Amino acid sequence: MCSSDLYTGYAAGAHYNHRGSGANSLCLNPNPTFPPGNSNGNQNGALIYGTEYQNTGIGKNHHDKDAVCALCVVRGATFTQWGRDVCPEGHRTEYKGYVMSNHYTQHKGMFVCVDGERAFEVKDQEGNHDGQLWYTTEFEQGSLPGSVYKHDHEASCAQCTALDYVSTYVRWGNRECPDGADKLFTGYAAGAHYNHRGSGANTMCLHPNPTYPPGTSSGNQNGALIYGTEYQNTGAIDKNHDKDAVCSLCAVRGNTHTQWGREICPDGYQFEYKGVVMANHYTQHKNEFVCVDGAREYTTKSSNANHDGNLWYTTEYEHGSLPNNIFKHNHEVSCAQCTSVDRTSTYVRWGAKKCADHATTLYMGYAGGGHYSHKGSGYNAMCLHPNPTYPPGTHSGDQNGALIYGTEYQNTGAIDKNH
To answer: Which residues are within 8 A (CB) of 184 and not within 5 positions of it... i.e. 6 or more apart?
Structure first.
């Protein structure tokens, strides 16, 4: 139960055995409404299923139970602390639990922090319905140092709230936060293995002082798996190949957002850092598009060994549904982290040219993401800035690391528009 909850709903996502639909998990409202023109025809575009807990050997035995969720509202900057279930001193603990996701052999889900209670829907029908599945997650050594993270031990987590701040962000590829931001910790960039279909698609900044949930063991349960992250060369603007990427969790007194495609923040905004967009290679399995600091720093425990794990390549624009008079084909993509001191939050209004009347439009951009037929690059959609800038050293060579394409609407047979 939240201190202030908006609703208790149903945890949902894509089917564990489907290559497509969204990788992210949703907390569905228990009182759904339906868009005009909807029908009960089987259109089979993207599909949403409920979520079941799966046993791996530790924690509550709620195997095949249907997972619930609660949407909570707080005052302060709230963040998920990956790998440690004790919040920083002076921060409020909202809850603690287990990192869970799809099995590493299935198809991509999302790493989520699941409350240790693993509560389920009282209307649960006791059956094995599958759908989206949640397994506990283990640390894997290599690009994660064995002196810090215990191999094959389950990963814990906590939801923490800093009352004196408005928002937090991760500065990927740097050990420090910039002036004007406070560093909560310097950690290890981590995610699923580049060659695994399953586990979570999102990238995490792991706490450097992990704790372990009750009942953890060194047994190889092989549910979802977490690996460290290495930089990879593509042939342009390369740096620190095979080094293990570092990250810093930063807190600010304002609303912060990632600006995709442009490294200059809007007038009046606080500039946090700039960098390059990176993700898995487009031929691998999806992880997340992230904004990596140009320094591309690495952990103090990093080596030059090729451990692989989660991998980061620079990202290029691809023409077609992205207009070639705006975005340079095969040029690397820049980014920036920007903070507004007089705003409390931002959102993207997908499919519209301006924000609602009571909101301020920062820019009208282009919806971008990985190609629908590519196994790799990032899973997340981005709102690309319409006036792109390019990182130093970029050129038109076809490096083919991660790739970004524009987005098209597709018909499914009901409520179609603008195919």
So the answer is: 79, 88, 162, 168, 249, 250, 251
